[in-house]
Records
---
Amino acid sequence: MTFREKLYRSWIAPGLGRAIGQIREGRAGWPSERIPLIGARDPSKSLAAGRAELWFHAASAGELESLWPLIGRALAEGVPAVVTAFSRSAIPSLERFLRESGESVTGKLVLAGSPVEGSWARALAAWKPRAFITAKYEAWPELWMALASAETPLVIIGASRRRSLLATRALLRGLGAREPRYLFATFAEADAAELQEEFADAAEITVTGDPRWDRVIQRAEKRDPRVREIVAAASNLPRPWWVVGSAWREDLAVFLPALAATQGTVWVVPHSLAGSTLDPLITSILTRTGAAKIPRTSQRDSLSGTPKYILVDEMGFLAEFYGSCDFAVIGGGFGQGLHSTLEPAAQGLAVAAGPVGSAAFAEVTELKSSNQLTIVHDEAEARAWVTRCIGSDHARERAVRLESARARAGATDRAWSFIRGAC
């Protein structure tokens, strides 16, 4: 170990980690008892004892989505693993996984908040994983140095030539530190080519596709009982059915006027059912549509007659509900950041959304190039999209898009084979 590497690992990284930890936890501290933080000084005291064959780690909830199919595969095959996330945003996803899995994860998976810079080496020494598997972004210098020292491969799902990877690698070289063994699983051929040019023989690179497609396709094929009930109760409502999923008030300001003159039924699914979100959303719908009230799916008799606008004030089945609709608008793109477009895409729907945050999703470029996704910037563009949808051969085009979505399946198998074969 060079003097510069020792200086970073012994002095700079711990100080940086303390500062990062304070920012992450805030004044209230880590907000989950079921998802503990891995201790900085002695990780083994924070979690149950035992060796983890694989360590899955994500920066936040978004990156965790790419890892869930692989975590599920590890669980199915009885491979002991640790699953960690850095951001507080991942806590709901981790807690939901615990609720849904129940006793099936006991003794097989440990879910926790991740270490911070300066604590990775102790955590790796406690768990001794055969591979450290992360998604897209995570590139902490001390983590990479600790992986190299432990001779633990670094597997990146959805790897691409990101600045964070290049900067961390440059820092390690500047410190004279060893680099870990790189295993890059990319979503596209272009990403693999760029990484090959940058890393050459220093990395093992393969194209797997995005495991999230397997996850959403599996959900798309699920027949949710509540969706069946709603669709049966609404069977008299005119088609086409338009759904505004994960809706924010800003999205409705653009899309509701565009949908006002169309035939069919508009289903609005809020991004949250909290009163602070739901009340302004309802007010926006009433104001922009001129309706005296808006029926809610939670009110069992509300779907009688032929209401044009319906509020889906229930959660947990949006991915399945897309399959009963004809066209989809995805919320968040006019202020808070676009929500995932994968769920409606997997159902073969034509999709529209605002521009904010669209660059954060790898699939956006692919869906735009196939004309399945349209990014609109204002009401006029939203009206143009609605007009194109009405004039399209909807059934034929949807069948083609469904076939294309199914062709993306299998990424989990490819990524799992890559990991197991290399580790």
Note: The chain has two domains: 3-210+410-422, 224-404.
---
Amino acid sequence: MDSPTNLLVIDYIIIATYLVGVMLIGIYFSRYIDSTGDFFLAGRALPFWAIGISVVASDIGATDMISGSGGAYRYGVSQANFDWLGSMPATLVAAFIFVPYYWRAGVYTIPEFLGRRYNNAVRLIQVAIWLVFMLMMIAIMFWASVVFLGELMGWPPLWSITLMAVVVGVYTVSGGLTAVVMTDVIQIVVMFIGAAALVSLSVWEAGGWSGMSQTILAEGPATQHHFTLLLPHSADTPYPWTGIVFGLGLILSSAYFVGNQVIVQRVLGARSEWDAKAGMVVAGLLKLCIPLLMFVPGLAARAIHPNLENPDSAVPTMIRELMPPGLTGLMFAAFFAALMSNIDSYLNSASTVYISDIHARLWLKFKGRHMSEAHGLWLGRALTAVLIIAAAVIAPQIKEWFDTIYVAIQTMFSLFQGPTLVILLLGILWPRTTGWGALAGLVFGVALAGLLNILGDTVFPSERPFLFVAVWTFLFSLAVTVIVSLLTPKEPPEKLRGLVFGQVLRDAESQDLLREQATGGAGAK
């Protein structure tokens, strides 16, 4: 490891001011948290601009600033497809088709909808999937802090993880979704300013765009596709055009924006249906800027330092060598903003899923009454703290399992996003879908995804086949769900009332039923 950055007093002042500031925000908003609805859905009072900004902050975060740039360092501009082809179309589909449904249905979580539409088995499997996934995501974010702070400051992993756990824990435990969203607004501004400064300095140091591209292409065959947006199908990367167009563009991106609890939870906290839809549109527009801000430093690092052992260290290296005093502190704050916006989102969503879909139901079954608001609020905060500790323990193992952080995240998504998208789509659009069909499609689809990821490049043309895994598991789950649904009895009409797309949007009786079902918050679920 190179020598760490020598931060000056002004850098420490900027960093300390930012970290203390976000903690104070969480403490401030805690005064408005009186119920589980306030803690998990911000009292359903979020405006569209806060939703859009928070969706982007939750989505990009440290994965793009560190591992996204690392992917650009290793694979080139094809990394940008994850924000262009992989975001804007999907956010529009979510805004004008799925968001009105979710918001009018009044649900707290994606598993809650699937439980109502199908059965408790589907709901519990989805809960288990999301809890494991979100715990792993928090652990990955903690490891990103180790990569960043270790490269720049020479800190041991324990110090980096402890700092992030304490700061994020304070404002997430205190203020719930309101604090998460409002700090996300601040964090996205800090991220954009810091990233823009790094882009300018790194491209200048690399000799401008033309000088940078000439230097990279001169390396030879290893970088011949670094400036190709859609790579050939035979390219030895995880991003061949077939996987990008079909796996990312049609499956993973759609599943991410319509079926990801972390994303959908912000929409569910909207103060109106218009705010919910407009928030997703704003998120899509902001996402168009991300590749320029987050991935270009990775390309510049490839031109300046072509032999980095760890691609994920590209951005920390650029910051250490190029940023002057003051801007270095701002870039530190931008990284903390990116990292915390990811961690706080997954913490809040994981707590929501557990309490709404497991604890509240068990409480009602064994206690014979709904969980009190005070109990739900206390448990949500306690569970958030437990998740932070568990993720901190897991974080050091991440580097042993995956080449880069970005590949780690996308591989985990590929394990369940295809089957989840199938049962969401069919559940809303095809009344003939049955609980048995959804259960079979989900279980066998996830099992196939695990098998295909194990087989890897022995079956697929890319070294990390998560994009192709998403395509084939989607098609397989679709076939299984349809076949089993046709072979099993239809769901009774009264069970489907309010859960089929047309009914939810147009049927007044269904709306009355959904409002009645949603009454009582998480404790009534």
Note: Residues 157-205 form the longest helix (49 residues).
---
Amino acid sequence: MAPNKADCDKLTKPYRFKNTPDGTIGIRFKPPDVTPATMVSYSEEKILEVLRNANYLHHDPKYSNEDKLHVEDKWDCDDRAFVGVAAVRFWLPGCPVGIAVGHSGNVQHAVVVYWFQDNNKKWIHKYFEPWDKKEAVGFNDDKSIIAFPLFRQDFSQESTDSLGMGLLKKFTRVENKSFCYDKGQDFSRFDEIESFLKARNFGKLPEDTTFKDLRKDYYDPEDLLLWVRQEVRRRFIDSPIGVAFGIKNKSPYATLVLWKSADDPRIWDVNRQINGEIKESEFTARAIII
């Protein structure tokens, strides 16, 4: 699961961000009956269908002889959870979902947390374990939750109401911090990662007509970059790959964060396919996940 503080602190973060082991970035809570809404309620059956059909395997050729579902300290529970979150946000635009970090027994662990409304319009949350594709029984979410749609600074705190369920109330909402989940330290693959990004138009959504109209309103830049980050992570499971959420040109935006060395982070804009590297001054980050 997550590396210890010493592992995380080996990486210099853009904007001089420091790591935090606990907390939440927050969520934009405006349910479907509020205009303009920020989320859509889907049936639990639809959400579980997407989660069960998501591809949780890595495809890093360097580790082709390793287990595709789990490689210790390289492709593990947080990677699988983020894959599930990215899949739900794409296939079910507007669905509130996130990664929950806590403990399963005495072991630190990460799973997917998702929300849906019951017949009385009450929001219910449950946990999903990508490892065996079923409910995460006995999970204790006592560390952090990164939930989507991601909270934004121009969104009134009163409107979030912790999803109207109280789940996020126990977590401190943090700004200008990094959440570190992976301990990848292989910087020798930087050029290979750069070439991989240049060869693919990650600024364009995968082709799909399902929920196309909903995606226009409910699929955010943060969602796209989470998906991109996981696609890059699948291919380079021993290298640090981050995503930064923030503001560019006064609008919500997100970028990748790559490391050429432990003390040399680079910000990569996927909408600049040929040369995506940009300066810190071109983008204002609020939070980074690694």
Note: Confidence is low (pLDDT under 50) at residues 157-164.
